Each structure stands twice: as structure tokens, then as C-alpha cells.
């Protein structure tokens, strides 16, 4: 049979893609396998297997893409079984190599062995994968094959050395391993001599070529998805562990008791200040030392067996109080009582030792054993509070005990011991004393609530022993007052799980409690709801009225929320002005009623320092399990629903709908595109004429901004202006709008347009800037527009804030000649006394009242009231949103002749405006009207 030699060429895009896949897979696999050093048991095996799978699949993906990069004749295929064998070889080799390298007794030799196995597995996968090619005859150059094996083995050893012997060098070890994999592959490919039978080659030439690039991209995408899932999983594990260790560390630092923490090998990694004082060692001297060698040499069992019992959860070690001798840093020893508990940890078992110095107590006990007489004297003068009782009646107390219980000398003698015990602890105290009397007690202390003689309740930790005195069996009780300790523990718990400002549970409490609640609701087959709430315009109030006012509003809102939701529901403050409420076993109508009641109560005016403050809330509601079965999903969806409520005008509630995710994604896209749009000046302005309807002539124009995005399409100002305000971009955008509007009006004046003003909208964010007045002055000077032809429009909500700084800036503009107008009037809560303080020229009636003004309804009465109020304040009034002839005529009848809206003119682009109002015919009509008026 005749063969033709095949000379393959490479697609360099696929070559680069294969190299990137190799680097990414190597880095991810070594990062995951490195976690094996920090894990035990099934978690260790899980990380080990995950690293091996990521490495094996990544190497195979690189090999497959690299093979696709070679332009081979059509008709060459792969044997599927052989491909699976090659993948299995790479996974098994990586698993064995990582396992040997991460062994607890690892050394350089183990890393070399593990790297050698991994290198052989890589080359094995390559050449088995080459063997999977059907339709080709492949021969190899043995020298180059040997070179490829050496490259893979040496680079694998170096990568493992950097990964397992040098912390935080995953990127370097991954880079080296990625080079090893790709280097081995292309070296191996150079060793291959491929040929194909002539008759197959001729048939292959007629076949249709496969789209190798598309196949390679699919393989690369699948591999990257697998590795991305692994990366996200490892990051989540790291985050949870970091939060847990941070919380435990803060508690250890502030604890009064002597606390020592050590790992499963007995290595100390935490030593709190109380322990430093007791042992005479500094924390830096102890950290990293063996607890057995440094602090516990007197323990009867060796540390290795003790570690085994601790890790296995042996009840004879864990949770058992042990008395032993402990060494101090000055070479002396002291008796101590210790108890060891195990704490759950993501990486390895962590143990906490609680320790108490028994020196003084031992002195008392030794003295009691030496002599009964000496026993009495020592007890009497002991600093420990001691009571002796016989058959339940107190027969002796020392001075310390008298002080604790607030009694005079002999004030406790003859009283029953249990008479001093609080009723909730009475049963456990009686059983405890019975065990002491019968000698079956374990000697462990007990915590009790007891009464002082004045009725005050205190917390006591008591330990009792059975002693013999004058032939009688007495119970001697040492009682320590731990009231302050308990109060301190409760304070720590309060700080950790409750918000100090509102008194509500905080995010920590919510994260701990809500998953448990979901389990209960799920077990009962019930429905639960999560309400996500925040205060509308809270940041604005905080910035303009001060943080003290903001804190009072938060406290008021928390009180209203708790009252409305009810005591049997859960309310928490997550952060800032964000709150959540959890409602069990409820239906949609109940939730609607609850949300409506809450919104109505929050909107009621709040009396603070003699002035009425108005605040509203937006509420998002997600239902369990319909809208999510995990805490994270419910929170996210309720938050999305809350933003939907804000976008619809705030001060309302919305149930979550899956379609809202699209709206949320659009909002994020707009927020990301906004800075570039401002930088590139991608916006344009349109101008809506304002008319005097009776005389029919132009009295001004309002500037409106528009945004056409090449991908997102037309973006309404209602979408991007709130985002610009929340992100602070409104400052730059507003300045650009002002300059463009002033410049355009100056050009129109110079072109012959009647001297009319241009209105520009300003945000409260802009007016909170100290240099806003200077910025406006600069814009007028640069464009040459006279100040009397500029109208600064502000919203009614800005006037409602009653901010002295804003009022001062408006007066400064008024002195320059700039006119002031209030936009959307009637939708807020402005009172007459507030408006009188502002230098206002014009009130613009909101279009929502104009729509039904042609009838005799409530809107007509509101418009009449606004017109009457404007006249009393000697203000002009202009109606917005006039869309029909009936509306225009009715407004004129009511006394409002200035108006704007689609009935008179839509917003016009610059060419449209000039074509209409700078035409010779229009200018001639204007001159004729002016002449007629003059005549």
C-alpha cells in the first residue's frame, strides 16, 4: 500500500487558544490541589479529585484544540474509546501526583515523584490521544519523544515545588505547568511523522472540511465553564471561612476568660490577653508552638493519642473538665482547670481550651484536708465566697459570701440554700445537690440564678464538694458571682447580632436565622415572603439635613416597620436604609394589605425639631419557594422588585416577576455605559417651546436631554437621569447641558429670534455643590448669554427640603438676574410658608393634573388652587403636558395662559426649531405683532 507523507500547518489562533487553556487549567488545578494541605477527610479527597479533574480535562482540552490547529486532511477521525482512555490517564495521573505531593509527610522527594508521575501522565495522554487518530499512520523520532517527556516531567516537578513549597505562587506554578503542557505537546508533534494511504487521501480531498475553529471554541468554552465553576466554589469557601475566623478572632481578643486555640496537630494559633497574663508568655512567643510541649507537659497521655481522641470527638476528652498542673513562663507551675471544645471549621478541626487558675481553690482544699480547725479559719478568710449547708440549711458562710448576697453577719445562717435559688433554676439545683449528697456528682460547676436578700437576681457559678466536719457530712459550696461576665457575654452577643441604632437584628442575625426559618417553612409545606425595603431619597435627606436627622428617620422607620409587620414576624436592618421583613404562612392579599398599610404609615409627616419631614419607602416582595429556594436568590429577587417599584415612581410595592431581571440588567448596562457617554458627549438636546396661548406667541423654550445608544437604543431621561444622580455623574452631565443650552440660545438671539429665555433643569445633587453658582456664572460668561434669559428649573422636592444653603444659592442666582422656576408642582408636599422663602418666579403645574382639567373633578380644583396661590405670591404659572385643544381652552378660562405640551409643539431638534421659528415668515409675523402692540 502506498502512503503519502502529510505536512501539516498550524492555525495560530487555535495554537494561542490551546496555550491559554493550558495556563488557565494548570493554575486552577494547582490552586484547588493546594487546598488539600488545608483540609482533612472527605473535603481533602474532594479538593484532590477536583484538582485532578480540572487538570485532566484542561490538558485534554488543550491537546484536542492543539490537534485541531493542525491542518490535517478531511477524513481523519478519532477513536472515541481511545480518547476516553487518554482523558482517564491524565485525570488519574494528576490525582496520584497531587496526592503524593500533598501528603502530610511531604518533602522534596515526594514532590519529585509526584511531578514525575504527572509529567508521565501528560505525555501518556498526548501519545494515547495521537494513537486515537484513525486514517493516519504515525511514526515518531525517539530522541524528540524523550525530549518531550523530559520537558513535561521537569516542568511538572518545578511547578509542584513552587505550588506546595512556596505559598501564594500558584500563578507562577500554573504558568510553568502551562508551558510544560503546551511545550510537551508541540515537541511531541514535531516528533511525529504522519502519512496517509493514497487512496484515502484522494477520497478525503472530496469531503467537506470541518469547521475546526468552531469546534475548538466549543471545547474551550466548556472547559472554561468547568474551571470557572471550580473557581467560584473555591472563592465562596474562602469567603465563608474568612468571615467565621474574623468573628471568632474578635471574640477571643475581647474575652475576659483565658482562651487558647490550637489545631488538630496541637499547634497553638490563638492566645488571648488573659492567657498572656496567666502564663507569663507573650502571644508572639506562643503562636506556632506545640501546646503539649509548652503548656501541658503534665498531661498523662502523649499528644499524638490525645490529638486522635480530640479529632474523633471522644467525649472523655471533649467537653470534660480536667484538673492538671500548668507551667508558667517563669518556670513555676500552677494548678488549673481546663475544658476543651471543638469548633466547626471548613479547613480542619479547631479546638478551644478554656482555662481557670485553681491555685487559690487548691490552697483552700488542701487546708481543709489538713485540719478541720484550719479548715474553718481558711474558709472564713478565703476570698472565694463559700457557704456550708447541712441537710439543705446553711450553717456557715464567710465574709465573701455575705458580701455577694448582701447580708449582715449571720444573716444567711439558718436559711435554706434552695430558698436563695431562682424559681427557674430550682429543679436543676435540687438535683445537683442530691448528686453531691450521694457522691454521684462529677464535680462540674453549675450556673444558677440566685436572689440577694434585697430581692436582686444575680448569676452564680457554684461548685460543691462533700466534706466531713465533727462527724457530719456537710456540703461546701463555692459560689462565684458571674453577673458581670454574663452581662458582658450578652453585650457581645448584642453587638454581634443587633443594630445599635434601631435595636433591630442585623445582617449577621439575618444570615444565621433565615436559612433555619426556610427549613421550617419547607417542612411544613407553607409559603413565606421576604420584603426588601429602603427609604426613598434617604441619601438626599442625609446630605442636605445631616446625619442626625437621617438617624432619627431610620429609628422612626424601624419602629413603624416593626409595628406594622407584627411581633410574630421577623424584621432586620441589613445596612444603611435597607431593611428586610420575613413573613411566614401568608397569602398574596395579606401581603398586599400589609405593604399598603406600611407605605401609608411611612408617608405620614414626621415632626422633628419643629418641622414636618416627609419620607416614603419602596418595597419589593419575593415569595418562597416560587421566587427562589435559597436566601441569596430571595434577597436578590426582592431587591430587584424593590428597584422596579422605585423605577415606577417610588412610594409603592412590587411583587417579584422574572421579567424584572431584564429591567435590572438594563439598568446595570445603562450605569456602565453612562461614563463613556458623558466622556464622548453622546447626548443631544431638544427644545420644547413654551407659549402664551391667548396671544399665540413664543415665550421661552425648555431644554431636554436625549440619549441614543448604539446597542441599548433610545434611553429615556426617566431611566438615565436617576442613575446619573445616584452615581454622581449628574454634575458633569448637568454642566454640559447648561453650556450647550446657553450657547444655542445666544446663537438664536444673534440670528434674529425674539429675546426669549431658555429653561434648564437642575438636580438637588448639583445644588449641593459649593461652586454651583460660580459654574452658572462661568457658563453665562463663556457663552455670552445675558443672565435674564436663563431660567433655572428646580423640582418641588428640592424646595421641600428647606435647606438653608440651597436657598442662599438661589438668592445669589436671583441677584444675577436668573429666573427661578419650580417644575412638576403639585406632586410633592410643599407648603406656602416654604415657598415664600424661595426666590421663585414661576410655578409649573405638573402634567398629571392637566390631563383631566377639562372636566369638573378634583384635578381642576387643584389647578385652580395652584393658580390662586401663585397669584397671591405674585408668581407666574405655567401648565405642562397640554395635549388637547380642550385642555388649552380650559386652562385659559382658569387664568393660566402660559403652557407647553404636544398640543402646541413637541420637543424640537435644532434644525426643526430653526426651520420653524427662524424662518422669514415667522420672524415677519413676530415683527408685525410687535408693531401692532406698539401702535
Automatic annotation (TrEMBL):
Pfam family name, one: MHYT
Residue ranges of the TM segments: 12-34, 46-68, 80-101, 108-128, 140-163, 170-192, 212-232
Domain of life: Bacteria
UniProt KW keywords: Membrane, Transmembrane, Transmembrane helix
Nucleotidyltransferase among keywords: no
PROSITE patterns the record matches: EAL (PS50883), GGDEF (PS50887), MHYT (PS50924), PAS (PS50112)
Signal peptide from the UniProt entry: none
SMART domains reported for this sequence: EAL, GGDEF, PAS
Record's keyword annotation contains Hydrolase: no
Segments forming domain PAS: 251-298, 371-440
Gene3D superfamilies in the record: 3.30.70.270, EAL domain, PAS domain
InterPro entries xrefs: Biofilm_reg_signaling, EAL_dom, EAL_sf, GGDEF_dom, MHYT_dom, Nucleotide_cyclase, PAS, PAS-like_dom_sf
Residues of the MHYT domain: 10-195
EAL domain residues: 667-921
Residue ranges constituting the GGDEF domain according to the UniProt record: 526-658
Protein name: EAL domain-containing protein
Organism: Paenibacillus lignilyticus
Amino acid at each position: 500500500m502506498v502512503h503519502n507523507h502529510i505536512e501539516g500547518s498550524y492555525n495560530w489562533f487555535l495554537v494561542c487558544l490551546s496555550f491559554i487553556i493550558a495556563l488557565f487549567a494548570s493554575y486552577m488545578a494547582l490552586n484547588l490541589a493546594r487546598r488539600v494541605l488545608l483540609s482533612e477527610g472527605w473535603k481533602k479527597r474532594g479538593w484532590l479529585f477536583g484538582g485532578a479533574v480540572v487538570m485532566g480535562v484542561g490538558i485534554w482540552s488543550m491537546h484536542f484544540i492543539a490537534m485541531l490547529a493542525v491542518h490535517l486532511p478531511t477524513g481523519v477521525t478519532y477513536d472515541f474509546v481511545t480518547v476516553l482512555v487518554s482523558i482517564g490517564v491524565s485525570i488519574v495521573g494528576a490525582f496520584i501526583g497531587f496526592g503524593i505531593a500533598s501528603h502530610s509527610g511531604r518533602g522534596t522527594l515526594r514532590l519529585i515523584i509526584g511531578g514525575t508521575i504527572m509529567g508521565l501522565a501528560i505525555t501518556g495522554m498526548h501519545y494515547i490521544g495521537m494513537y486515537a487518530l484513525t486514517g493516519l499512520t504515525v511514526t515518531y523520532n525517539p530522541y524528540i519523544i524523550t525530549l518531550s517527556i523530559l520537558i513535561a516531567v521537569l516542568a511538572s516537578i518545578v511547578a509542584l515545588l513552587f505550588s506546595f513549597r512556596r505559598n501564594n505562587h500558584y500563578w507562577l506554578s500554573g504558568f510553568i505547568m502551562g508551558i510544560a503542557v503546551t511545550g510537551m505537546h508541540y515537541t511531541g508533534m514535531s516528533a511525529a511523522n504522519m502519512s496517509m494511504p493514497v487512496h484515502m487521501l484522494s477520497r478525503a480531498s472530496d469531503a467537506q472540511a470541518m469547521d475546526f475553529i468552531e469546534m475548538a471554541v466549543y471545547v474551550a468554552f466548556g472547559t472554561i465553564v468547568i474551571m470557572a465553576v471550580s473557581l467560584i466554589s473555591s472563592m465562596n469557601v474562602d469567603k465563608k471561612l474568612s468571615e467565621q475566623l474574623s468573628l471568632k478572632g474578635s471574640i477571643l481578643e475581647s474575652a475576659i476568660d483565658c482562651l487558647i486555640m490550637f489545631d488538630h496537630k496541637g499547634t497553638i494559633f490563638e492566645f488571648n490577653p488573659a492567657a498572656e497574663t496567666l502564663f507569663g508568655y507573650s502571644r508572639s512567643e506562643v503562636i506556632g508552638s506545640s501546646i503539649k510541649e509548652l503548656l501541658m507537659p503534665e498531661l498523662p497521655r502523649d499528644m499524638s493519642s490525645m490529638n486522635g481522641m480530640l479529632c474523633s470527638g471522644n467525649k472523655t476528652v471533649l467537653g470534660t473538665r480536667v484538673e492538671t498542673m500548668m507551667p508558667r513562663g517563669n518556670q513555676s507551675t500552677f494548678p488549673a482547670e481546663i475544658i476543651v471544645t471543638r469548633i466547626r471549621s471548613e479547613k480542619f478541626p479547631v479546638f478551644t481550651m478554656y482555662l481557670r487558675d485553681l491555685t487559690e481553690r487548691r490552697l483552700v482544699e488542701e487546708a481543709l484536708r489538713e485540719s478541720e480547725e484550719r479548715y474553718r479559719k481558711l474558709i472564713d478568710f478565703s476570698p472565694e465566697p463559700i457557704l456550708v449547708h447541712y441537710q439543705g440549711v446553711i450553717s456557715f458562710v464567710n465574709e465573701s459570701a455575705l458580701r455577694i448576697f448582701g447580708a449582715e453577719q449571720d444573716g444567711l445562717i439558718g436559711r435554706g440554700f434552695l430558698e436563695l435559688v431562682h424559681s427557674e433554676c430550682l429543679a436543676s439545683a435540687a438535683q445537683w445537690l442530691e448528686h453531691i449528697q450521694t457522691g454521684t456528682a462529677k464535680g462540674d460547676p453549675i450556673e444558677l440564678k440566685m436572689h440577694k436578700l434585697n430581692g436582686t437576681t444575680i448569676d452564680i457559678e457554684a461548685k460543691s464538694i462533700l466534706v466531713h466536719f465533727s462527724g457530719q457530712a456537710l456540703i461546701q459550696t463555692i459560689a462565684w458571682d458571674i453577673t458581670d461576665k454574663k452581662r458582658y457575654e450578652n453585650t457581645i452577643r448584642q453587638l454581634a447580632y443587633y443594630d445599635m441604632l434601631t435595636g433591630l437584628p442585623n445582617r449577621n442575625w439575618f444570615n444565621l436565622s433565615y436559612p433555619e426559618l426556610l427549613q421550617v417553612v419547607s417542612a411544613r409545606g407553607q409559603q413565606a415572603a421576604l420584603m426588601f425595603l429602603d427609604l426613598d431619597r434617604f441619601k438626599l435627606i442625609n446630605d442636605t439635613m445631616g446625619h442626625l436627622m437621617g438617624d432619627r428617620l431610620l429609628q422612626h422607620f424601624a419602629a413603624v416597620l416593626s409595628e406594622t409587620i407584627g411581633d410574630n414576624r421577623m424584621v432586620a436592618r441589613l445596612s444603611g436604609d435597607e431593611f428586610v421583613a420575613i413573613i411566614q404562612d401568608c397569602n398574596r392579599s395579606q401581603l398586599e394589605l400589609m405593604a399598603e398599610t406600611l407605605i401609608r404609615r411611612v408617608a405620614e409627616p414626621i415632626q422633628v425639631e419643629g418641622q414636618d419631614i416627609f419620607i416614603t419607602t419602596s418595597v419589593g416582595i419575593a415569595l418562597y419557594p416560587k421566587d427562589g429556594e435559597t436566601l441569596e436568590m430571595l434577597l436578590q429577587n426582592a431587591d430587584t422588585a424593590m428597584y422596579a417599584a422605585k423605577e415606577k415612581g417610588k412610594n409603592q410595592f412590587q411583587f417579584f416577576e422574572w421579567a424584572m431581571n431584564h429591567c435590572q440588567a438594563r439598568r446595570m448596562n445603562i450605569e456602565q455605559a453612562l461614563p463613556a457617554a458623558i466622556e464622548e458627549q453622546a447626548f443631544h438636546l431638544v427644545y420644547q417651546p413654551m407659549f402664551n396661548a391667548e396671544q399665540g406667541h413664543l415665550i421661552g423654550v425648555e431644554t431636554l436631554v436625549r440619549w441614543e445608544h448604539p446597542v441599548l437604543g433610545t434611553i429615556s431621561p426617566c431611566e438615565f437621569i436617576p442613575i446619573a444622580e445616584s452615581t454622581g455623574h449628574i454634575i458633569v452631565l448637568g454642566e454640559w447641558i447648561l453650556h450647550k443650552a446657553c450657547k444655542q440660545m445666544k446663537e438664536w438671539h444673534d440670528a434674529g429670534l425674539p429675546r426669549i429665555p431658555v429653561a434648564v433643569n437642575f438636580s438637588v445633587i448639583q445644588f449641593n455643590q459649593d461652586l454651583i453658582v460660580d459654574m452658572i456664572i462661568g457658563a453665562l460668561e463663556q457663552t455670552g448669554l445675558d443672565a435674564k434669559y436663563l431660567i433655572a428649573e428646580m423640582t418641588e422636592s428640592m424646595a421641600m427640603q428647606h435647606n438653608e444653603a440651597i436657598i442662599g444659592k438661589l438668592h445669589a442666582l436671583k441677584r444675577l438676574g436668573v429666573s427661578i422656576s419650580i417644575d412638576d408642582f403639585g406632586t410633592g408636599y410643599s407648603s406656602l410658608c416654604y415657598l415664600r422663602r424661595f426666590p421663585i418666579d414661576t410655578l409649573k403645574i405638573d402634567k398629571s393634573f392637566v390631563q383631566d382639567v377639562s372636566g369638573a373633578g378634583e384635578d381642576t380644583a387643584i389647578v385652580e388652587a395652584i393658580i390662586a396661590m401663585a397669584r397671591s405670591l405674585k408668581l407666574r404659572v405655567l401648565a405642562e403636558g397640554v395635549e388637547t385643544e380642550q385642555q388649552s381652552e380650559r386652562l385659559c378660562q382658569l387664568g393660566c395662559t402660559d403652557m407647553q405640551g404636544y398640543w402646541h409643539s413637541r420637543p424640537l431638534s435644532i434644525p426643526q426649531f430653526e426651520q420653524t421659528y427662524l424662518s422669514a415668515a415667522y420672524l415677519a409675523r413676530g415683527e408685525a405683532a410687535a408693531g401692532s402692540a406698539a401702535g
